[in-house]
Specification:
Layout lengths: L1 H21 L15 H24 L3 H10 L5 H13 L5 H7 L5 H14 L5 H9 L5 H11 L5 H9 L6 H14 L1 H14 L1 H21 L12 H4 L8 H18 L10 E5 L2 E5 L3 H21 L10 E6 L2 H11 L10 E3 L4 E5 L4 H21 L4 H11 L3 E3 L3 E3 L5 H13 L4 H6 L2 H6 L2 H17 L4 H15 L3 H10 L4 H16 L2
Parallel strand pairs: 2-3, 3-5
Antiparallel strand pairs: 1-2, 4-5, 6-7
């Protein structure tokens, strides 16, 4: 809004200057003929906007805890620019807002917890580490709140946050273990190493979690070393855990400690970001440091895909904001950017879509076919988020997995009939065993979806969406899916949108539909 007010002021000034130079009265000045003065209109609009913003800021300064909680809860429904602005306004309130942000973590509303934590991360409030640790250890945070709060500890690096994250590696909740693993990685290798080694010796869930974190720390460190850095010692982190026969545990531990201590001296934690050029295309903007010719080809491909995607979902492309992509030539720059700019808690080492910043973040890949599929996948996320608002995770991931493998189609834009072989066998096994029920998947919140058995959730989501778009019910399934999209676009919310499915097929019939579809694909 502020940028709009500044631009309106600039337009008004330009129009006034033009009229003065021309030696004529200001354009449209009311001289009794009933004409409207456009400059006065612009100035009035700017004044109204400034007044509104001023009232809003004064109101926030006097806000009670319940008002602040409503502000946080409402952030998820805003567009991307206003969403960031709303978070910034909470940040500017300073320490006074901290107790209310902590309280939001106890809310059963996952989005409320998510944006409370995002605000804490933007504040970089080191004082937050102890209260957050206290809430986590005291069990006073909901499941979604525990997931997001644990991830926040990695942004607020301190001994408090590291100790709590290490303790939570043995948590009974898989999503919390995942968030704790990321927090430990972000807190640094040297301080975490002794406790990780001790945790591995305990075995069980905690031991496996510690082993996985050590392996990721080692991979992160390798990727982060600049040219000329020390090579890691032989053997993997798993060897230090004593899983390989004949391994001298004490010698392996000492070697691993020495390795990480050498890394701490060599890894550039605050390495500058590369300078990115901007490649604009139709409804698509690419910021990258890859060679310009390659960047132009990528831009054309994704721009064409987005046009086809709009036709496939029967949405006017011009009504949806431009897709923004950050594509780094080097994986290490991708990792650095994700760790310092994305407050949406990037848990992945691959391409991802930031639902807060509304941008795709990627790195160049020598396998151009795989790069294209990944970029298409994240572009689907961006398009759905911009056109439909908050959509359920199964729809986001299922549609993205379907359409990344789709071919061009003249009638509908895209033809999704080609199955995504990456998920076929896992989906078949999960549906047959009942390890993930369709009705549970549809109701699943993001914290559980992405923090639990993520691969199985992706696979079953792909199977469900593929069965609707290219399954045995033909056009009926596609029509129902498009009804869900229309319901989301109309602002009915994910819960009401899902009634489109439940009103047509029961959970059992929907499961049978997916099973039938997978069987037909198997024998195709």
């Amino acid at each position: 809004m502020r940028s709009r007010a500044r631009s309106l002021t600039a337009v008004g000034a330009a129009l006034a200057a033009t009229a003065l130079v021309a030696g004529v009265p200001a354009l449209g000045r009311d001289e009794g003929d009933g004409a409207v003065d456009p400059i006065a209109e612009l100035r009035a609009e700017v004044k109204r906007e400034r007044s509104r913003r001023s009232r809003h800021r004064r109101s926030l300064r006097k806000a009670t805890g319940s008002r602040i909680r409503r502000e946080i809860k409402g952030i998820g429904s805003l567009d991307s620019g206003t969403r960031l602005e709303a978070v910034d306004e909470l940040v500017q309130m300073g320490d006074r807002v901290l107790p209310y942000l902590y309280d939001c973590l106890t809310s059963p509303n996952g989005y409320q917890a998510r944006y409370a934590v995002i605000t804490l991360c933007r504040m970089r409030a080191r004082a937050s580490a102890a209260p957050l640790s206290d809430r986590l250890q005291g069990g006073r945070v909901t499941e979604a709140g525990r997931f997001y709060t644990t991830g926040a500890l990695g942004h607020i690096a301190s001994p408090d946050s590291l100790d709590t994250a290490l303790d939570l590696l043995g948590d009974e909740s898989a999503p919390v273990r995942l968030a704790a693993a990321v927090a430990v990685r972000r807190c640094g290798a040297r301080a975490a190493l002794p406790k990780l080694l001790d945790g591995m010796a305990l075995g069980g869930v905690r031991g496996e979690a510690c082993r996985a974190v050590l392996e990721r720390l080692r991979a992160d460190a390798r990727a982060g070393l600049r040219a000329g850095g020390a090579a890691p010692p032989g053997g993997g982190a798993g060897g230090a855990g004593g899983s390989a026969p004949g391994v001298d545990r004490k010698a392996a531990d000492a070697e691993l400690r020495a390795f990480f201590e050498s890394l701490d001296a060599k890894v550039e934690l605050d390495a500058p970001m590369p300078e990115l050029i901007e490649i604009p295309a139709k409804r698509f903007v690419l910021h990258t440091d890859v060679p310009e010719a390659e960047a132009l080809a990528i831009g054309r491909d994704i721009s064409d895909f987005r046009e086809s995607l709009a036709r496939f979902l029967e949405i006017k492309d011009g009504d949806v904001g431009a897709t923004v992509v950050k594509l780094f030539a080097e994986k290490k720059d991708f990792d650095d950017y994700g760790a310092t700019h994305d407050y949406n808690f990037r848990f992945f080492s691959e391409y991802y879509y930031s639902f807060l910043l509304r941008e795709v973040v990627a790195f160049d890949d020598t396998d151009t076919r795989l790069r294209t599929r990944r970029l298409r996948h994240e572009t689907v996320h961006d398009f759905v988020e911009r056109s439909c608002g908050t959509a359920p995770p199964w729809l986001h991931e299922g549609l993205a997995e379907c359409l990344e493998a789709a071919t061009e189609d003249g009638e509908h834009g895209l033809d999704p009939k080609e199955p995504n072989q990456e998920w076929f066998s896992l989906a078949e096994t999960a549906i047959a065993s009942g390890s993930v029920r369709i009705e549970d998947l549809i109701a699943m919140e993001g914290a559980i979806y992405y923090g639990g058995d993520q691969s199985t959730h992706y696979a079953v989501s792909w199977a469900l969406v593929h069965a609707l778009l290219a399954g045995p019910r033909g056009d009926e399934g596609r029509e129902k899916f498009l009804e869900i999209i229309k319901a989301l676009r109309a602002g009915r919310g994910p819960e009401k949108a899902m009634k489109v499915l439940s009103g047509t097929w029961s959970a059992r019939r929907l499961t049978d539909l997916v099973k039938q579809h997978l069987a037909e694909l198997r024998h195709r």
